[in-house]
Design goal:
The chain is α/β, with parallel strands linked by helices. It is built from 9 helices and 9 strands. The radius of gyration is 22 Å and the shape is elongated.
Amino acid sequence: MKKIVIITPVPEVIKVLIENSIIRKSIDNHVASIEVINLRDFGIGNYKQIDDSPYGGGSGMVMMAEPLMGATEKALDFVGRSSDVEIIYPSPQGKLWNQDLAKKISQTDKMIFICGHYKGIDQRVIDKYVTNQFSVGDYVLTNGELPSMMMLDSVLRLVPGVLNNIESALSDTFSLGLLDYPHYTQPRVIDDKEVPEVLVSGHHEKIASWRQSYRESRTRDKRPDLWEKYKKIRKSEKGYE
C-alpha cells in the first residue's frame, strides 16, 4: 500500500478534492493511505503563525521553516523513514510535470507533498527535505494544493486497483507519446451527426488503424513538439536515425 502525506495550511481544500476525485478510489480499494497534515498545528505562538516577511526586504510573505520542518518530520513518521521517500514541492523552479514523470513517481510507495503559499517556502526546508520540485506549467498559482492534487491524481490513476480498467489509463493521451483519438458513445445519431461508420463495423483492425491515424494527425497538427519526439522514438525503434 502506498503511504502519502499532504502538508497544507488549508486541509479542507485537500479533503474536498480527495472525496470528489479518483483519489478516493485509491483509498477505498486499499491501494493508498493518505494523511492530510494541517500546517497550522505546527504554527508559532498563540496565533499559529506560519509565514513572515522575507529577509533582505521585498514584497510578499514567506512560509516559515519551523512549522514546515515540524510537519515534515511528522509526515516522515507516517510514511516511514527510508531513502526512497519522495518529498515533492510544486514550484516554478521544478521540472515540467508530464506523463513520464507520473509513471516514474507511480512506482514510489512513499510520497510527501508540501503545499506552498505566498512567495514560497524557506529555502532551508527545500535544502533539507525536498527530493523533487515539479512545475505544472509556466504560470503562477496562489497555492500549492491544486498542483499537488493534479500530480497525485495523475500518479494514482496509473496504479493497478485504482481505475476499473488499468488499460484505459495506459492508452490515454500522452501515454503512447501521442494525443488521444476522438471518442463516441450513445446515441449513434444526434443532431444529424453520426458516429463514424468504422467504429460500429466490428472490424477491430480497421478500428485500431482509424484510431492510430487520428492520434498521429491530431498530434502533428496540435502539438508539433510532441510529434517531433514521437518521430524520433519511432526512428530509434526501427534502428535508424
